[in-house]
Amino acid sequence: MPMTIITPDRPKFKPVLTRVAFRRGFVAALPFIVSNGVAGVVMGVAYKGLGLGLAPAVLFSLVVYSATAQAVTLGMWTVTPPVAAMVVACIATNARYLVMGAHLHQLFGRLRKRVMLPILFLLADASWLMTTADAERNGPDAGYLLGASVPMAIGWIAGTGLGYALPLKPGGPLAIAAALLPAAFVVTLLPTQWRGRKPFGRGLYRPRWLY
Questions:
Q1: In terms of pTM, does the model score above 0.85?
Q2: What span, in angstroms and rounded, lies between the C-alpha atoms of 52 and 26?
Q3: CA 36 to CA 43: how far, in whole Å?
């Protein structure tokens, strides 16, 4: 008599978008309003030093919304900005978002694009890291990604406008300290966000909610 071995499927959580997760992510990311805000102040001061107006300066931080890309293009700024070279530089410095996007597709690919694309516009390195950790604990919830991303965007964009308005000059110790703040906060966040992960395979980790 032939024997049949039945292997039960691993339980998986269906991706959702909830207000509870939005609040949880928003509260967890509140410190980034300060760290991104201070870095944004430096960017605003730098834009003012280039002779940009307040509206274009804030618009850059809103549309480009990338500290690394904006910092790179600052060094390329001339009387007639090399737009094509700046675009290439932005793409190169933000190539890591291809990896983040591929990973987030695994978590939220079943949600509608009209829901996810506006949320992904606010994606940041730290919000991706925090969302990955939260998905392992509670299952994939796009509300958390949105909630964690909003304070970071508020700090960066508002900080740019504030820096432009303040009577500060580009450069100096303030610029160095502010540029390191977001990265420093992410580093301090790593141990708490990745604690308790279970290894499997070589150098890989399986989310706890897949067990």
A1: no
A2: 32
A3: 10
Contact 66, 90 (CB under 8 A): yes
pLDDT tens for 51-66 read 889 999 999 999 989 8
Residue 14: other Cβ atoms inside 10 A: 8
For residues 161 and 165, what is the distance between their CA atoms, to the nearest angstrom? 6
How does DSSP classify residue 12?
-
> Contact, 54 vs 193, CB < 8 A?
no
**Residue whose tokens read 């949320």:** 119
Which two three-digit tokens encode residue 150? 């909003």
Tell me the C-alpha distance between 178 and 82, whole Å: 27
Q: Which has the closest alpha carbon to 201: 210, 190, 191?
A: 210
Is the CB of residue 44 less than 8 Å from the CB of residue 57?
yes
Beta carbons of 28 and 130 less than 8 angstroms apart: yes
**Which of 204, 185, 183, 207 shows the shortest CA–CA distance to 196?**
207
What Å distances lie between residue 84 and 61, 73, 81, 89, 150, CA to CA?
Answer: 19, 11, 9, 9, 30
| β-pair partners for 206 | 198
Model confidence at 13, pLDDT cuts 50, 70, 90, reads: confident
Tokens 């309003």: give the residue: 33
CA distance 49 to 125: 28
